[in-house]
Amino acid sequence: MGTLNIEPIHPEFGAKITGVDLRDTPSADVVDEIRDAIDDYSFLCFPGQPFDDDRHIAFTRLFGEPEASHVKLGQEGVIDYLGTIGNVQDDGSVLGNDHQRTRFQTGNNMWHSDSSFREVPTYISIMCVYEVPDEGGQTEFISQRAAYGRLPDTQKETIDPLIAIHDYVFSRSKVGPDAVTPSHAKSLPPVQQKLVRRNPRTDAANFFIGSHAREIVGWDYEDSRQLIDSLLADASEAEHVYSHNWQPGDLVIWDNRCLLHRGSGYDADKYRRRMRQSRVQGAGSTLTE
Ligand SMILES: [Fe+2]
Q1: Distance 92 CA to ligand 1 centre (A)
Q2: This prediction's pTM
Q3: Would you say the C-alpha torsion 182, 188, 148, 45 has a positive or negative sign?
């Protein structure tokens, strides 16, 4: 019998976890339990865990190597393991809808897996929630594992060996022509990722796409788009979506190896939003999984 009290929150994935105070550094056994819950449920919400940045980083390190923000690294050459999701800045200033940084974050309103455009994509993202808008600002999640499971066997066989190209400049070209600075673009050349991944512990399979997935290696662009777009269309039908209504004090972990997520937008002129996010690097390139 484990320490964690696990309550599923959607028929396909996700759980609310109580029975543990994460501010006391969890024991190795509890960390193992959380790792298993990540493998099994993909999305974990621990409500009522008031954190700060130092605790957040220490907690992140329990699960592996923190991932440096590609934005700060690509634009300024600076390593930063925590990023702000929202419009309240570190100096207390609040950015409105028209600010370039607010507009840039609208790129996250497309279904994506964090850092799928990096050679080593993200294992998990960890969000600590401080301030949320009175309306809007939910984040939606879908399971590419559940969606893969719904495919006919013949289609599974077709897509199992495929490799996709993930490209940050491609996905951000939809936000605007100058969304990515030249140094940032240069730091993120397109990468190859397996189209179908398997959880290393449970062997559960999922496809791995999202907004950064540009095309399939060896396929022409039109056929590539048709496949990627049709996989996403099925995965994101309303009944398969879990929409998370953030609450201050939530600590949320999600598994980027198999989930996609997207922001739903909020009125940054009217509301404050401050959530801090860290990420843990994956075990390696998906091509070697
Ligand atoms: Fe994201």
Answers
A1: 23
A2: 0.96
A3: negative
